[in-house]
Specification:
This protein has 15 helices and twelve strands. With 375 residues, it is α/β, with parallel strands linked by helices. It folds into two domains: 149 residues, Rossmann fold (3-Layer(aba) Sandwich), CATH 3.40.50; 167 residues, Glycogen Phosphorylase B (Rossmann fold). The longest helix is centred in the C-terminal third of the chain and has 15 residues. The chain is globular, with a radius of gyration of 22 Å. The N and C termini lie far apart (55 Å).
């Protein structure tokens, strides 16, 4: 196998969940060329991945706004020229929808691998592939991996080692400034104000409470109570991550209640965020890009799910433990609740009690961090 192209164009979380396939392919074919087609906005993440040879960017959002404009035609022509510059032995369509079919159909590839009628997301995708398999939906990461392993008739369980995304010099400088046991007295912290103490105190839990969907977020009072219970029983410090001003306000409120044990950190690129995940002892998260990013490292995670199934979306390894909230209205779903975006209460996750979450956390900590002293 001399050359492979992966077609997984969006979204960020979905692309991150596909890293397992890339790691598998790179180990199986260490000298092969492996390229990836992705949306322009996600390209910087993939360009930081050391196992890729080329990232080919598309701009379907802007193309859809003006599909027949001269600019769109020129951009699409340029994209196809880059894509078809290489004749691939294998094109892998992991997205399975109409958009990815356009990309896969445009590629020059001997084998175009995808899902069959039973498991493809959108039937139009079948036009673009010539080798198809039925991969029943289980864990999304394993679904992607199983498609590729099925093609290679590989029955061996793949053990992922994780990946260290490459950092720019600016990202590396900031990592060194907030890395464990790096004192602000030795190097000024890039997160102001400088408190003249280690920015990240070990042992440390990274807390990623944010999600773009309100119904995936834990109740703030419940989250605070959970963290306070952890602080009473364990010597963990907390690194509170925020992504926008609203999340920053929540982080500041949590930090004020947790005191010296908490540090807030924001404005992180995805590679820098992932590098920090390698450094902490564990990650607490909801179903979000943060959890998926943690799954690309060896760091264990404790996650909380409501309107999406933990069995489908949490990283599959045993070091990752998830708590699943129950729908009080008796609604069942696979893999996401159909009213995830519109449910007025979000009760499946917001009604979770801090006490039951803490019991699950204790079990997770005993499995993954047995050396952490109990206060």
């Amino acid at each position: 196998m001399r050359s492979i192209v992966i077609v997984k164009t969006s979204a960020i979380g979905d692309v991150i969940q596909t890293f397992l396939v890339l790691e598998y392919l790179r180990k199986k074919f260490p000298s092969s060329r492996i390229d990836w087609v992705v949306e322009e906005g996600i390209a910087p993440l993939l360009k930081a991945h050391p196992m890729l040879d080329q990232v080919i960017e598309i701009q379907t959002k802007s193309w859809r706004r003006a599909p027949f404009s001269r600019e769109t035609r020129a951009q699409f022509k340029a994209f196809v020229k880059i894509l078809r510059a290489t004749h691939y032995d294998l094109a892998i369509d992991l997205q399975g929808n109409t958009k990815s079919a356009l990309v896969t159909a445009s590629a020059k590839a001997t084998i175009k691998l995808g899902y069959d009628w039973q498991s493809v997301r959108e039937k139009a995708n079948l036009i673009a592939t010539n080798t198809r398999f039925n991969i029943p939906f289980s864990n999304i990461r394993l679904k992607y991996l199983h498609l590729v392993q099925t093609y290679f008739n590989d029955q061996i369980k793949f053990q992922a080692e994780g990946v260290h995304l490459q950092l720019t010099s600016v990202e590396q400088e900031r990592l060194e400034a907030i890395c464990p046991q790096k004192s602000c007295l030795q190097k000024p912290c890039l997160q102001k104000p400088c408190l003249q103490k280690p920015c990240l105190q070990k042992p440390c839990l990274m807390v990623c409470f944010g999600s773009k969907w309100a119904n995936k977020r834990l109740n703030e009072t419940t989250l605070l109570t959970l963290l306070q219970n952890i602080a009473k029983e364990y010597e963990f410090s907390f690194l509170l991550i925020y992504g926008d001003n609203d999340e920053k306000a929540v982080a500041e409120s949590l930090s004020a209640s947790l005191g010296a044990r908490a540090t807030i950190c924001g404005n992180l690129s995805l590679p820098l965020w992932q590098a920090l995940m390698w450094e902490v002892d564990g990650v607490i998260a909801v179903d979000s890009a943060a959890l998926h990013l943690c799954g690309t490292t060896r760091t264990p995670s404790f996650s909380i799910f409501g309107p999406s199934l933990a069995s489908s979306y949490k990283p599959p390894e045993d070091r990752h433990l998830a708590v699943q909230g129950a729908c009080p209205y008796g609604r069942s779903f696979t893999p996401r609740c159909p009213v995830l975006r519109t449910c007025a209460t979000g009760a499946c996750i917001r009604d979770l009690k801090a006490e039951e979450l803490f019991i699950a956390f204790q079990h997770w900590a005993e499995m993954n961090l047995p050396s952490v002293k109990i206060c």
